[in-house]
Amino acid sequence: TRPAAPPATPSACRAHARCAPPAGCRAESYGGGVSDDVPMVPVEVLGVRQQQRDQEIVVLLLDDASELVVPIVIGPREASAIAMAQAGLPTPRPMTHDLLRDLLDAVGVRLERAEIVALDGGIFFAELVLSNGVRLDSRASDAIAVAVRTGSPVLCSAEVVATAGVEVVDVAQQEEVEKFRDFLDHVQPEDFSVDE
Has residue 169 got a pLDDT over 80? Predict the structure, then answer.
C-alpha cells in the first residue's frame, strides 16, 4: 500500500503533463523565451505516485520555503523513468532520458538546471538550461526525468508555485510527505506498469 501524498486542493487533472490551478488563479500566458529575470525557486522532486481516486500519476515538487507542493500529472512512462532514476535502478538498455544524458556527456555539455517556467491553460512548460547558454523547450515531465538522471537542480517559477502549489502546513500532512519519501526509497519499476 502506497502512502498518500499531501491532499491537493486543485481540481483533478485530466490531460498528460497538466494540472488545473486553483479556482480563480491563472498564470500569465506563456509565450516562450523565458529570461533569466523570471524569479525562480528551488524545488525538491519528492517523486511520483498514483492517485487512488482516479488512477492518475503525479510528480510532486516541494518548495520548502513556502511549504507548497506543486503536483503535475504525467504519463506512466515518464513516471517510471523518474522513479527508477531516483531509486537508482538500472535498465537493460538505455531509456530515452538516459540517452539524452549520455548525449550531453558525449558533446561535453552539462545540464545546469531544469526550470518549470510557466503554467498556461493548465499546461506546465519547462526549459532545460545547458552549460553552453542554450535553453531547450521541454515538457515538464521530460525535464524532471533528465534532471534526476544528471543530478541537476530543478527550479520552478515563483508564480507557478503560487498559482498551482497546495499547502503542506499541518503535522499530519508533513508526516505523509515523510512517508512518501520513504516509499520512494523502496519503489519498484513494476509499480508503474504501462498498458501496451
Answer: no
Q: Could you please report the per-residue DSSP string of 123-135?
A: EEEEEEEETTS-E
The DSSP code for 170 is S
Strand pairing class (40-50; 123-130): unpaired
For residue 108, the 8-state DSSP code is T
The pLDDT tens digits of the residues spanning 117-135 come to: 999 988 999 999 999 999 9
- CA gap 21, 160 in Å, rounded: 9
The per-residue pLDDT for 188 is 61
C-alpha neighbours within 13 Å on the C-beta side of residue 123: 11
Decide: 106 and 100 in contact? Cβ < 8 Å: no
* CA nearest to 53, candidates 25, 80, 24, 73: 73
